[in-house]
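Fill in residues.
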């Protein structure tokens, strides 16, 4: 029996994930936590009876990434898998650096959730397909270039978005190409404009030295 802790501040989403997990008799949800602080305390109480944690990212108080960092340090035998709506590279990399062993989107099927549990327990890296492609692209970029990814203090994802802005793509096209949501693209563009002191696409491209 593989025992699970679910961490989510939205009870309905936590219950939905529990229902998916418990469709298989191989798994049992030991408890639900509604915040990062709650997750850390429950793990201290239940450490010996939990094998895997499904962790949301954005919650009141301690967020999921910080809670993951604490749990990974205090309970190295426990596998933490992020389960979130955020499908961008920044959150993915932060989660993995904090000690998460996988990253799933909340709309995954019960079958995918079950496979992910087995993968995590077997020291695999369970990941939603879009995030797996994103990770592969990131590794390829790192292997293909020795140039610093920080420019104007831009993150790697912001640099990617700026590169696509310079080619004239729309937000929707950039989202499709980078496997992220339209809203995530818009947020990255806002950050790019702020960091470059630009008010529009052309100004940002010009200040960054990107060729159109």
């Amino acid at each position: 029996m593989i025992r699970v802790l679910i961490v989510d501040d939205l009870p309905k989403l936590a219950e939905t994930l529990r229902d998916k997990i418990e469709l298989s008799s191989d798994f049992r949800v030991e408890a639900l936590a509604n915040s990062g602080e709650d997750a850390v305390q429950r793990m201290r109480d239940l450490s010996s009876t939990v094998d895997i944690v499904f962790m949301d990212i954005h919650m009141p108080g301690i967020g999921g990434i910080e809670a993951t960092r604490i749990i990974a340090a205090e309970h190295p035998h426990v596998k933490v898998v992020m389960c979130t709506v955020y499908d961008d590279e920044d959150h993915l990399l932060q989660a993995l650096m904090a000690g998460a062993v996988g990253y799933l989107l909340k709309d995954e099927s019960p079958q995918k959730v079950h496979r992910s549990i087995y993968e995590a327990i077997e020291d695999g890296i369970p990941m939603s397909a879009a995030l797996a492609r994103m990770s592969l692209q990131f590794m390829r970029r790192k292997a293909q270039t020795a140039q610093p990814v920080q420019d104007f203090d831009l993150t790697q994802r912001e640099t990617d978005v700026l590169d696509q802005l310079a080619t004239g793509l729309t937000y929707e096209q950039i989202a499709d190409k980078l496997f992220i949501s339209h809203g995530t693209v818009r947020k990255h563009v806002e950050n790019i404009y702020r960091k470059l002191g630009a008010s529009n696409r052309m100004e940002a491209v010009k200040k960054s030295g990107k060729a159109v």
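The CA atoms of residues 4 and 29 lie 5 Å apart.
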